[in-house]
Amino acid sequence: MSGRGGRATLIAVAVVLAWLVIGGVAGPYAGRLSEVSTNDNAAFLPTDAEATRAQDLAGEFVDRQTIPALVVYERPSGITEADRQRVSADAARFAQVPGVVAPLPPPIPSEDGQALQIVVPVDDAEGEEIGTVVEQLRDITGGDRDGLTVDVSGPAGLLADLIKVFSAIDGPLLLVTLVVVLIILLVVYRSPVLWIFPLLAAGMSYALASVFVYLLADADVVKLNGQAQGILTVLVFGAGTDYALLLIARYREELHRHDRPWAAMRTAWKGAAPAIIASGGTVIVSLLCLLLSSLNSNRALGPVAAIGIGATLLVMLTFLPALLVLGGRWAFWPRRPREDQADPRAEHGIWSRIAGFVARHARPIWLSTAVVLAVLTLGLTQLGATTLGQSDLFTQRTDSVDGEEVIARHYPAGTGSPATIFTTEQTARQVTQVAQGVPGVADVRPLSTGPQTGPPDPSATPKVVDGRVQLEATLADPPDSDGAERTLRELRVAVHQVPGADAVVGGFTAINVDTSDAAKRDQNVIIPVVLVVIAVILALLLRALLAPVLLIATVLLSFGATLGLCAILFRHVFDFPGVDSSFPLFAFVFLVALGIDYNIFLMSRVREESVKRGTRAGVLAGLAVTGGVITSAGIVLAATFSALAVLPLVVLVELGTAVAIGVLIDTIIVRSLLVPALAYDIGPKIWWPGRLSRANGEREARDAG
Prior knowledge:
Elements: H1 2-26, H2 50-58, E1 66-74, H3 81-94, E2 108-109, E3 115-123, H4 130-141, E4 149-153, H5 154-166, H6 169-189, H7 196-218, H8 226-255, H9 261-288, H10 296-316, H11 319-327, H12 349-360, H13 362-376, E5 385-386, H14 390-393, H15 399-410, E6 419-424, H16 428-436, E7 441-446, E8 464-465, E9 468-475, H17 482-496, E10 504-506, H18 508-542, H19 546-572, E11 579-580, H20 583-613, H21 615-642, H22 650-682, H23 691-704
Parallel strand pairs: 5-11
Antiparallel strand pairs: 1-3, 1-4, 2-3, 6-9, 6-10, 7-9, 8-9
Helix pairs in contact: 1-7, 1-11, 4-5, 5-15, 6-8, 6-21, 7-8, 7-10, 7-11, 8-9, 8-10, 8-21, 9-10, 9-11, 9-18, 9-20, 12-21, 12-22, 13-19, 13-22, 17-18, 18-19, 18-20, 19-20, 19-22, 20-21, 20-22, 21-22
């Protein structure tokens, strides 16, 4: 025994040292992900989207692609001569900023005389450095002065504010996530030592995932954006801590039955690893289904998050067990488990009592919990998926939001961010007339030849490139509003009907419209595929067909209840205007994939116990020994996703809230009451058509006889 124990210790030491070396190499990449992150919405569109084709055509009409920053000056009492001089001086300085494409068009006065607006074209090739360019513009304006307010808005201003928000991912979000996990681990383990092991393993998982994501993004294999980066952080720490809790709980059980830590870990690993691998594999496969998305942003999130889960599985099944073996029983101090051959259920008194309650009231429990969840799904009627407007995107005021509101007060709200129409030279006049007749279109003018030193002149000679001309249609509504999107759709219908025009409509609003349409298509394609994949994995794991169908039904019910409750909270508590078009799909993938995790944790143990005890006794034993760890894991995952709220973006706050609520519903209601009660009530038939169904049926029939 001592020789075998010595070899096991040496192996554990070697594994730990190897991982520490890997961590030393990979660690720095965790702080460098922002270097390879991009947040350009247009880059995430499908290549066949009309807005993408318009963007390609726009590149032929200019020497350099630009994204406009709109600098707007407002004085409610009327713009003064001193204000005009200040604006002219600012414009001259704007033209000198690296990244700004000069010459700038002259300032545009509002009809009411209360505002001046400068359109500052920023070179699109600046990429993430657009944020730096916009900050320099804001520094030049110097902010509000003597009653004159100044804001830098427009697409470039919005992008700069988004970049600033996502810069918090490397620091504050990671710190908040670490603190949340640390506090929960201290509460769960009540040990000043044990929390170190899962937290160290989770940090190693994040470092390993970061190096792979960095290299793939740097090689342009995947597109990393701030949203995917934030989700990667909370997912790795949340899921990693979940897997650690499951392994440690099983290890603690086995320490009561084995005198040597390495022997206890060997048995614990054999018992817990299949469930952990199946759980992680389910999440990975579900995330990879996002590769079926037509949006590049969704296709990027799938592999990025899947890499995070894959790295987490590898670390939690190698590095963590080695650490625990080296830690031995003292790692659990002051509640060190002794080798006393105690029944695992003895340490879970409260869950043994819950199991007894389930046994006595199985049918009323699953019926009542199902009804409660079904009632919550009624809240879905208040969930309206839309494209959030610029003023609705942030949870706090930003310069770009303030500027958008000023522009809307004094100008046609689409000024500076027009819809672009590309058509043939022969049909340009007819297309212009048709476009001007669309309600919500304020003005249509051609892009003319010669240097653009002012607004488009309707009588100027249009610029012709390969037989096409570019028209600029200014919309009456803000470019990211529902009104602008309705106008854009009507505009497309109108110009597409002009014979021989071969019209293509693009621009900022068109990007939002095409993104929303692609998101709806993705939901209809990806959600059924994810359900089929999960059903197959559950059927293979549980070697049954009825159990997987019922488990998926409970997860779908939980998902519907979560979205219904969230719809009520978002509208009546958080006062959000709606949810982003990508929200339902992201919420589904994460809630269903992670919800199935807890089904796997519970039912794999129930099946293991059913083989030894019979189905109904196995359900109660499985609930008793996994109830505590599953609840703890759910709380950890809910808390880590709640950390997304530190980023002041409505879409991430909504996603974090939905996952947190959904996971808590899964762990407290579905996994603790609904599923055990349903499985207990059905009995051995839950394993139909597997052999366990027949064997346990005969056993329970004999026991009843």
